[in-house]
From TrEMBL:
Protein name: diguanylate cyclase
Gene Ontology CC entries for this record: membrane
Organism in which the protein naturally occurs: Neptunomonas concharum
Domain HAMP span(s) in chain numbering: 325-376
Cofactors: Mg(2+)
PROSITE patterns (UniProt xref): GGDEF, HAMP
Taxonomic lineage from the root: Bacteria, Pseudomonadati, Pseudomonadota, Gammaproteobacteria, Oceanospirillales
Limits of the GGDEF domain: 433-566
Keyword set, alphabetical order: Coiled coil, Membrane, Transmembrane, Transmembrane helix
Catalytic activity: 2 GTP = 3',3'-c-di-GMP + 2 diphosphate
Residue ranges of coiled coil: 378-405
Record field: transmembrane: 21-45, 298-323
Known EC number: 2.7.7.65
Domain of life: Bacteria
Length: 570
């Protein structure tokens, strides 16, 4: 672009072009935007890597360490259950211990890949107590097995003991001599001391009971009862007491050995449990510190993103300010000057600068000066003519609307309805088409007006009218205010079934408005009339049929649709 030399215009330098400036501004803005997006993406990627490492390395190991601690406690609990329930089957004890040890070992294997020297140190402490602990468990189970076998043998002796006592009790009423009585008393005493020795828990107490048993056994052997039954009981009683004296000592030693083994196992269990729990606590602390570090990184990232966002906002404001100050304001000044010249005012056209806007200013200034007078007269005449036409058009539209529009509901009035129905009636006669008419009446509207007042009644009429109007489906359909709270709907080329379905749709639409009413909510009744032979019927007859259907709808209880053919509801 360039101007002629006589007007003081020169070539347009691309360096001063608005396009160059705008392109530079937009490129700078988008470059900053992409750099900001790259920085944000990189920061978010770092957060993703950090969180992934935190969830993979720390959370999983913390949960595994907690599970390891729980399994160690379960094994320790099994030791005490075995100690308390020594009468359970050895197979059950062994299987439980083996299962718990396998579970513990499987959890321990999941920690077999330490990620730091700290993990190596803590796991070595756990492994330091693991082997002694499992060995002590094995010894404890063996000791329990020995105790179980010894007690099983003693149970047989107890059964024999009760049999002998029962036999002696049966002989008490049959004692004939003093010797028989003394024999029986020594036998009962020996058996009673045997029974007491089965519950003795200290070696000294057991030794005293054994001496007492041997004393009564000696006295028993020194007597010769007269009863053959008593003489036959001598040897079984001696054998039974001797067996109890022989077996109770090892059983007591086994019980003490079992208790000692249980104590040893418990100590080792406490040590391995303490080691696993300490490892769990340390991992939890490390994880907590990692979470705090991650949170600080997140805060740093949020601050960075906020600063980037602030920078982008500032850059955007700078670009907008530049465009506004160097382009929009100058264009606005040029536009205002042009409008002022169009209005006949003598204003100066802005021509400062060496860009496109200044060139436009120079060009318009020359053009305005050359044709100012002619354009002013032409625009003045055109404006006057346009104003007159607009005023006439507005007046005609107002008159037309006033004559055919209901002032309250802003839908066609009765006059428009009569004209439109006559036009559609003639069209239906020419083409032998269906023509349907729906008469609509608001139920109990007088009660609504009496209860809420006429302003609310007007608002109700407006809302119903707008709803009916908004549900017109096809071109050529028309809804009009027929009078009062009654409306009419003209449906060209619509059969009775279609009109009835449409009327039901309108009834449901009004119900869904949920306008409150003293009797519940506002509803409408609708009467439908249809003809497919307009030339054999009159407009007045069609209206009368729709009114009659509406009358039936009112009599049938309102809030329903009735047709003119049979007076039946939809």
């Amino acid at each position: 672009m360039r101007r002629s030399s006589n007007s003081g215009m020169s070539y347009l330098d691309w360096r001063h072009s608005i396009g160059t400036r705008l392109n530079t501004s937009i490129i700078t803005l988008f470059t900053c935007y992409f750099l900001a997006m790259a920085a944000s993406t990189y920061s978010l990627y770092e957060q993703f890597l950090s969180f992934n490492a935190l969830s993979t390395n720390h959370f999983e190991r913390v949960m595994t360490a907690a599970e390891l601690t729980r399994d160690a406690e379960l094994i320790a609990s099994e030791v005490f259950e075995s100690l308390v329930g020594v009468d359970r089957s050895n197979g059950q004890r062994s299987n439980n211990s083996e299962n718990l040890i396998q579970i513990y070992q499987s959890v321990r294997d999941r920690l077999s890949n330490p990620t730091s020297p700290f993990d190596v140190k803590q796991l070595s402490i756990i492994d330091q107590w693991q082997t002694p602990y499992f060995n002590s468990l094995e010894r404890f189970n063996q000791q329990l097995e020995n105790e179980y076998q010894l007690k099983s043998a003693l149970l047989l002796r107890i059964d024999s003991l009760f049999e002998q006592l029962n036999t002696l009790e049966q002989q008490l009423p049959l004692l004939a001599t003093q010797t028989d009585t003394r024999f029986t008393l020594h036998a009962l005493s020996a058996l009673s001391y045997c029974a007491t020795s089965l519950r003795a828990e200290r070696p000294g107490q057991l030794a005293q009971l054994h001496n007492a048993i041997k004393d009564h056994q000696a006295k028993l052997n020194a007597l010769s009862p007269s009863s053959e039954t008593l003489r036959q009981l001598r040897n079984p009683i001696n054998e039974l007491t001797q067996q109890i004296l022989t077996e109770r000592g090892p059983t007591l030693k086994s019980e003490r050995a079992t208790l000692s083994s249980a104590r040893e196992t418990r100590v080792l269990a406490q040590k391995i449990t303490s080691a696993t729990f300490n490892y769990y606590q340390a991992l939890k602390q490390i994880t907590r510190e990692e979470i705090e570090t991650h949170q600080k990184q997140v805060i740093t990232t949020l601050i960075t993103l906020s600063l980037i966002t602030l920078f982008m906002v500032i850059m955007t404001v700078v670009v907008i300010f530049y465009i506004k100050h160097h382009v929009l304001e100058r264009l606005h000044l040029l536009y205002s000057a042009v409008n002022a010249r169009m209005d006949g005012k003598e204003v100066r056209i802005p021509t400062q600068g060496r860009d496109e806007i200044s060139i436009l200013g120079h060009a318009f200034d020359q053009f305005a000066k050359a044709r100012y007078a002619a354009e002013d007269q032409l625009k003045t005449a055109h404006a006057e003519t346009e104003k007159a036409n607009n005023d006439l058009k507005l007046a005609n539209e107002q008159l037309h609307n006033l004559s055919q529009t209901d002032a309250l509901t802003q839908i066609p009035n009765r006059r428009f309805f009569d004209q439109y129905l006559a036009r559609e009636w003639n069209r239906a006669c020419r083409h032998n088409n269906f023509l349907s008419l729906i008469m609509v009446d608001i139920d109990w509207f007088k009660a609504y007006n009496d209860h809420y007042g006429h302003p609310e009644g007007d608002a109700c009429l407006q809302q119903v009218a707008q709803t009916l109007s908004s549900h017109l489906r096809r071109e050529g359909e028309c809804v009009a205010r027929y009078g009062g709270e009654e409306f009419s709907i003209i449906l060209p080329n619509t059969s009775r079934e279609q009109a009835t379905e449409y009327a039901e749709l309108l009834r449901q639409a009004i119900t869904q408005l949920e306008i409150p009413h003293p009797y519940g909510q506002v509803t409408i009744s609708l009467g439908v009339a249809t003809t497919n032979q307009p030339d054999k019927l009159s407009i007045e007859a069609l209206i009368a049929q729709a009114d009659q259907a509406l009358y039936h709808a009112k009599n049938e209880g309102r809030n329903r649709v009735m047709t003119s053919d049979s007076g039946q509801p939809l």
